From TrEMBL:
It comes from Xenopus tropicalis (Western clawed frog). Residues 64-278 form the Cytidyltransferase-like domain. Its main location: nucleus. GO terms for molecular function: ATP binding; nicotinamide-nucleotide adenylyltransferase activity; nicotinate-nucleotide adenylyltransferase activity. It is found in: Nucleus. InterPro entries: Cyt_trans-like, Euk_NMN_adenylyltrnsfrase, NadD/NMNAT, NMNAT_euk, Rossmann-like_a/b/a_fold. This is Nicotinamide-nucleotide adenylyltransferase.
Length: 327
């Protein structure tokens, strides 16, 4: 209750005295309430908006899988799901995208069918995925592209997209005046944008690819070092493989072991493209081993037979041929 000093003229009648006191009290109380409301409003304006989303300090990651995909199987898709679950469980990473990048025909692997077919099957297999996509850049190149170049390409795409997004926001701010009361929100958005770290591309692979890093002339040491130090590897172990032991026996892998994430597949799944092709050559069913849409595509185009398996027969694998010349 507001206490107001009593300054009532003795000459006023009793009723008028009470009326005068009541009027003065109400007026002072109203003024005090207005003052308090104004102070509260100022204090509220200094606080961050309650509806502002909490910042997510996890590092954003894009998983990139390269390979033949000859043909793509459900296991290839399963690798992405396993890797995403693992990285999210660490609490350090947030997977925002998965990319399948089929190798080009220049790889010259025995039994490798045309890139156009492998690309089409990969697109069919990922049609219903909301985060895995297929990229045609690698397989559209005339010559075989080293994996490190593919990683660089996709990391650069992310950098370009990040720069483009930042430029658009700057243009928007210059072209539109903001109200004074939005200055706190603008400053906060700008700080969040500047402090946001660009997503990191990581190579997703199976244990067989990890072990291939030790094969002479298949990989260049400088490429392996760059892949490990600049990008990192997420490796899904396969039944019968001993990825941990392989890392221990390799000096390069051991040096960068902190950049290698080993993910164990507890649900045994030994599906491989090699076994799928073998089943097709023998007229056996592959349903439920590859997506139904891929099964239909293979049947419609009469892919994978004894003749296709002899493709590139007698030709040295391009990485081996290229690295042997330079060694």
């Amino acid at each position: 209750m507001c206490h107001v000093p009593l300054r009532i003229s003795e000459s006023l009648p009793g009723a008028l005295k009470i009326a005068s006191l009541t009027y003065t009290s109400h007026k002072e109380e109203q003024s005090l309430r207005l003052h308090l409301s104004s102070s509260e409003a100022v204090q509220q304006s200094l606080l961050p908006p309650q509806n502002m989303e909490k910042s997510d300090d996890r590092r954003e990651v894009v998983l990139l899988a390269t390979g033949s995909f000859n043909p793509i199987t459900v296991m290839h898709l399963r690798l992405f799901e396993l890797a995403r679950d693992y990285l999210h469980e660490t609490g350090k990473y947030k997977v925002i995208k998965g990319i399948i990048s089929p190798v080009g025909d220049g790889y010259k692997k025995k039994g490798l069918i045309e890139a156009s077919h492998r690309l089409a099957m990969a697109n069919l297999a990922t049609k219903n995925s909301n985060w895995i996509e297929v990229d045609s850049w690698e397989c559209s190149q005339k010559e075989w592209m080293e994996t490190v170049l593919v990683l660089r390409h996709h990391q650069q795409k992310l950098a370009n997209a990040n720069t483009s997004d930042s430029s658009e926001k700057v243009v928007h701010k210059k072209g539109h005046k903001r109200k004074r009361e939005n200055s706190y929100q603008d400053k906060t958005d700008r700080c969040l944008q500047e402090s946001k770290v660009m997503p990191q591309v990581k190579l997703l692979c199976g244990a067989d690819m990890l072990e291939s890093l030790g094969k002479p002339n298949l990989w260049k040491n400088e490429d392996v070092i760059e892949i490990l130090s600049s990008f990192g590897i997420v490796c899904i172990t396969r039944l019968g493989s001993n990825a941990s032991n392989f890392i221990y026996e390799s000096d390069i892998l051991w040096k960068y072991k902190h950049m290698i994430h080993l993910v164990e597949e507890w649900i045994t799944n030994d599906i491989s493209s090699t076994k799928i092709r073998r089943a097709l050559r023998r007229g056996m069913s592959i349903r439920y081993l590859v997506p139904d849409s891929v099964v239909e595509y293979i049947e419609n185009h009469e892919l994978y037979n004894e003749r296709s398996e002899e493709r590139n027969s007698g030709i040295i694998l391009e990485p081996l041929a290229r690295n042997s010349k330079n060694s």
